[in-house]
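Section 5.1 Outputs to date
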Amino acid sequence: MSLKLYNTLTRKKEEFIPLNGKQVGMYVCGPTVYNFFHIGNARPFLVFEVLRKYLQYKKYKVTYVSNFTDIDDKVINKAKELGSSYDKIAERFIAEYFYDADFLNIGRADFYPRATEHITDIIKFILRLQEKGYAYVVDGDVYYDVSKFKDYGKLSKQSIDEIKAGARIEVDERKKNPYDFVLWKKSKEGEPEWSSPWSFGRPGWHIECSVMSSKYLGDTFDIHAGGEDLIFPHHENEIAQSEAVSGKIFARYWLHNGYLKIDNKKMSKSIGNILTIRELSQKYDGSTIRHFLLSAHYRSPLNYSIEQIEQSKNSIETLNNLIFNLNFFSQSKQIHKKIDEDSKKLTETVDRMKDAFIEAMDDDFNTPIALSTLFLLAKETNIYLNKTKNKNLEIINKVIQFYEEFGTNILGLKFSSQLSRQTMLPETEIGHLIAARERARKYKDWETADKIREKLLGVGVIIEDTADGARWKKS
């Protein structure tokens, strides 16, 4: 069975056929870095990185890009609130992002472009829109003229009239149309600013992703993903900008995850139910939260409740116990080489679960069914371990390999019994964590710095702070 993905653009499942053979370009909208990210933010960060892992399992070479929006009203307002600067706020919460992403075992993207690192590229892009007649200037602000792009609304499946009637649009009589959106904002007093042909100012939100995705992946790439809330206006506006400039299809497959609620209520500051990963990490391990986020199909809504997260905790504990027992028996002197009927039956179950896992993932990335194979196999394996006297080492190792390959390498679950048999992180990951700790120390965020030190100690890495910076060694 070939991989099929639901394309928001066409509203149907389509066979995934990359533009360039086994090369895949993938862009996932990243965080606006002004605070700790919450469990709703975590869902796209996590599920689409799992899709990247699965594509790699299918032998695709994936270039994975996820951006940081490091200049935005929210970043500026946070800086004012804390009496800091926008760049220090961005640096701090980029470090916090990596800390929480590591806790959830979200793998690193190939590129993490920041908006402020691409101001020159953004200005050039806007100039091209202006030259082609899609942009106009009003008092130092630059707007995109939506009426000039005939396909506007094709992603959200809305006409201009529907957008005009249904959108919450800030009234600005200077705009040609009320639904035109900003490409460049003239700065207000005290705001960060960059020089441009129109004014000292900063880029709008939508233009940043158009510029950064095309820079790292080209004018046309394979997969653009993010939360359902980004379909309109963010992704709709990206299409309008990018296709107006290049004259080519922007992204070929658009993937969007469903909303996440807390106790069946939308997360909102006004009712105080924002639940950050940092808060959750005080009660649950990363694999429990991963299990919860993967327990529903990515396009379906997901509701967080104590009952649901506790169920995920119990599910992970079931797998922890199984892997512990498997590792115990794999090292036991009572293991036999004889393959009896019970061993043959379990071997067949492993093969069947492998096929079921792949079939589920090929069918629009169905992680709940893929997850279920881990527990169906666990049930059969526990029966085998409890009743079979002549336990076979080959089949026990085959089961262990199944959980390593599908549970850990693809779904990203880590088991407390050190399933991967590694106590030391790769040196690149140690370097990332030490750099994050150094940033935290720089901004006097001692709590984060201490947590990173504790995490490294837990995997056998000792940090020594010297006059020349942090050094590390194996304990």
